[in-house]
Amino acid sequence: MARPRFLPDNFSLMIIGMVVLASFAPIHGHAASIFGQLTNFAIALLFFLHGAKLSRQAVMDGLTHWRLHLCIFTATFVMFPILGLLLKPVIEPLLGHELYLGILYLALLPSTVQSSIAFTSIAKGNVPAALCSASASNIFGMFITPFLVSLFIGQSLSHHDTGSSNAVLNIVSLLLVPFVLGQICRSKLFPLIKQHGAVVKCVDQGSILMVVYAAFSEAVIEGIWHQVSIETLAGLFVVCGVLLAIVMLLIHFSSRALGFNQKDQIAILFCGSKKTLASGVPMAKIIFAGQPIGLILLPLMLFHQIQLIVCGILASRFAQRDESLDDK
């Protein structure tokens, strides 16, 4: 039986499933503490495998294209945050303070890795440059995002110092150190990872699902569904869609005005307009430790689904173009 076109992908359905499960059967007490430790282990394993998968040669191939990387970094860490701040007078009255913080938090996150590269490849763009830029965005984002959060959101959090060295150390130990160890072990591990891709995918998706379940369990206990109405969810969907549309239009016209060829424009569009769920959820768990992060993560999860759908449509259209005209 053919899969209905209106259904999202399996991973999106599983994320929705975790939200539903947490809504009816939230984990709490000692079980939540144990589950949190297991989640931390899964996150560390995830970034270890990411490090082992990343090709050093591909990084070197794309590393020299500094103008493209600068453009993507500007879109990710300058354009997005500025838009998040400029839209505050509209978003905060519409959605409330907590959901606005979620919008601002997603604006401060690095780009995705896998999906940015995948969509660039489908669209026949500059894949090596996309790989290098998206990976660098995630690595540097481990430090840039906490700094930006402490700068733009820290004053809005009443119980936790997001700029503390403890948060940075937790990010380094949980995300960066496993990533570096994976790079060191890459020569021995990559053949196994390539052979057992399903296991890697399971860790990749499973760690995110665990964090989503834990976060929403806490949010449900805190009464999230008494705070978010259907109208608010609809408004959040519109805000996320409009934010993505503005960013994509700005990237499209600016990359064309700067003289990038079509393949580079595609890489800039897909890397510069996307925000990572894989790194964003674990970082939120660390940065906002002690805070009710369910509402903060809700905009990111919704934005993630929207960006996958929109980028999938655009990638398919780009793939149908005549590549011989790209450099003319």
Automatic annotation (TrEMBL):
Parts of the chain that traverse the membrane: 12-28, 34-54, 66-87, 99-119, 131-155, 167-185, 206-226, 232-253, 293-315
A single Gene Ontology CC term: plasma membrane
Natural source organism: Acinetobacter brisouii CIP 110357
Top-level taxonomic group: Bacteria
Protein name (record): Bile acid:sodium symporter
The keyword Transmembrane helix is annotated on this UniProt entry: yes
Keyword entries, A-Z: Membrane, Transmembrane, Transmembrane helix
Pfam family, one: SBF_like
